[in-house]
Structures are given as structure tokens and as C-alpha cells.
Amino acid sequence: MTDPQKDIDRLQQEMDQARTDAANAGTGEVVKAQKNQSLDAVVTGAGMLLVLGLAVGFASRLTAKQVTSLTAGSVGASAGLVVGYFVGRRRNG
Fold it and tell me: Hey, is 93 helix, strand or coil?
């Protein structure tokens, strides 16, 4: 179990940092936000696009050409999302 005092101290530090960032932004200084480079979000997005692509294949109201186009687009988008993530990770370190 975590120590309540440590939690309070951590929250106080976060509030102090937020207050300092707000004061700096008010004076015109640029505050760089930390980038969230989470692989979980990328994998979730790619998985959803893959499921969309496969689900479209079962749609009976679309023509074969429409199903092929939508499936290829969503599968290509999911691949592009994953590749873009890894290129960004490599470029930004």
C-alpha cells in the first residue's frame, strides 16, 4: 500500500509545476508539453482499423468493388499508423 504522505507530496509537486507552467505561459514563455508516445494507443487504433476492414467484408449491401476498396483502405490505414509510430519514435529518440 502506498504512503498517503508520499501521495500528497507528489500531488503538491504536480500542482506547483502546473502553477509554474501557467505563470510562465502568462508571461509569454513557451512551455513544451511532454509527448505521449504510447504503443498501446497505436496498437488499439490499428486493431480497430483492421476490425473495420474485416467487418466491411461481411457487409452484404455493398458491391464487391466497394467492399474491396473499404477493406484495402482500412488495412492500409492501420499499417500506416503503425509505421508512422515507429518512424516518429526513431526520429525523436
Answer: coil
Rounded to whole angstroms, the Cα distance separating 54 from 66 reads 13
pLDDT for 35-69, tens place per residue?
656 777 788 888 888 887 777 767 667 788 887 88
Mean pLDDT score, 70-84: 85
Position 21, amino acid: D
**CA pair distance 92, 84, nearest whole angstrom:** 12
CA nearest 81: which of 32, 29, 45, 33?
45
Spell out the residues 6+ positions from residue 47 whose beta carbon is closer than 8 angstroms to its own: 78
